[in-house]
């Protein structure tokens, strides 16, 4: 930085630098994502410009190179992209008001979609992230179609210099003089891990120099951006295993591109088996959010928690690359994507449910999770009740609520269910006897969440859901089975039993609910259901 023209940053840049270095990004490693994104962006741009100017044609081996030099404490990110003229260097790296990418985005709007390269980053913040890890940055750039190269140089503290330079080919080198406390970013392995994490799906090769050799670090395919016809099942399954860390094959693969008010591509998977560690630990959806192919976060809550078993990627055009956590929480875009994606997954489930056997396997794995949605998501409660499947006291296999309602006896007003924590012994419960004797079907619910959702759902197709362990089950309305056995003399027995049990029970009375058993423990009509009482006791309430 000897000589050269001295320029002041625009006032906004000074403020922005402070913001970037101190507050904007929680993780410093993101500087690499930003610089790699810019390099890929510039390469896209050059390819696009070459459509109308052959002098800017992209070399066939165009790539992004990352070169850490430990001894010199220097990290260089180079590309074969469009490059910048002297004026562009001053404008693009000296102000934020005029982001080259943003201007280019407006230019793009005038072109047909098939002519558009995919662009990363529409907002002018990213480059300054370099100053999180560097105390000095040199940018050497040669505009494609020109012989001139220029060096932009700054310590990020308010001014930059511009001086003539040389560069063999068009493109840009970003040279970071790494800060004392940022050694880790001179380590090739560390850099590779960052590229894998944040930029694996950049379409251009990204190489990292290690032991004198350039090794490609990214997988390089934004798989989801390809048309389904170009993808093999094997590729999709590999990708599923990569994003989910599962080892099975997916039960369902959903791949679609939404256009219109929202623009996004989604590639989602429903696992074919219940992941080993799935359950209580994983509470939120880990579907990955990408913006223009760049990974942003897997904590955007792209799906409701009751679809947290769904794996995959949503890649949108409608958010800025440098979207912050706070912005993610506030933006309506995400809420709209979430709704669209949720509805799409539910549609898929509805259609896959037509294959009862296959759907039963899915339900076995993830039904309990979906039922959480009946409990805590008013918006989707009814949809989910329609998708739910149940064991029943009278049916083989699984039944739906709708089929149950269609089978209800004349005069039957409610959908009866029995909860318990052992699916194996539930069909033998004495609670069922009176119902069984009268030919009344009872749904058998044995998941912990089953103690909660029926009350929330309340009714299905106008029929109330009623637990049979509540004392006043409605058996009197139905004809009792013929029973010639002599009646026990309860008038003497009941007070004696109450006296013996004391405070342990609130009441002892006769019942028409039993056929083969002598006694049954029953919940009062007002209090909580028996299974719920057990759960509450277990959780110390
Ligand atoms: P954004 O990428 O969101 O526009 P940045 O701060 O990351 O904002 O970059 C500012 C501008 O600098 C870019 O829009 C682009 O015009 C220019 N730029 C940055 N890096 C490069 C590069 N490697 N090659 C060409 N132009 C670049
Ligand atoms: Mg950028």
UniProtKB/TrEMBL annotation:
<protein>
    <recommendedName>
        <fullName>Chaperone protein HtpG</fullName>
    </recommendedName>
</protein>
<comment type="subunit">
    <text>Homodimer.</text>
</comment>
<dbReference type="InterPro" id="IPR020575">
    <property type="entry name" value="Hsp90_N"/>
</dbReference>
<dbReference type="Pfam" id="PF00183">
    <property type="entry name" value="HSP90"/>
</dbReference>
<dbReference type="InterPro" id="IPR001404">
    <property type="entry name" value="Hsp90_fam"/>
</dbReference>
<comment type="function">
    <text>Molecular chaperone. Has ATPase activity.</text>
</comment>
<comment type="similarity">
    <text>Belongs to the heat shock protein 90 family.</text>
</comment>
<keyword id="KW-0067">ATP-binding</keyword>
<keyword id="KW-0547">Nucleotide-binding</keyword>
<keyword id="KW-0143">Chaperone</keyword>
<dbReference type="InterPro" id="IPR037196">
    <property type="entry name" value="HSP90_C"/>
</dbReference>
<feature type="region of interest" description="A; substrate-binding">
    <location>
        <begin position="1"/>
        <end position="325"/>
    </location>
</feature>
<dbReference type="InterPro" id="IPR036890">
    <property type="entry name" value="HATPase_C_sf"/>
</dbReference>
<dbReference type="InterPro" id="IPR020568">
    <property type="entry name" value="Ribosomal_Su5_D2-typ_SF"/>
</dbReference>
<keyword id="KW-0963">Cytoplasm</keyword>
<dbReference type="Pfam" id="PF13589">
    <property type="entry name" value="HATPase_c_3"/>
</dbReference>
<keyword id="KW-0346">Stress response</keyword>
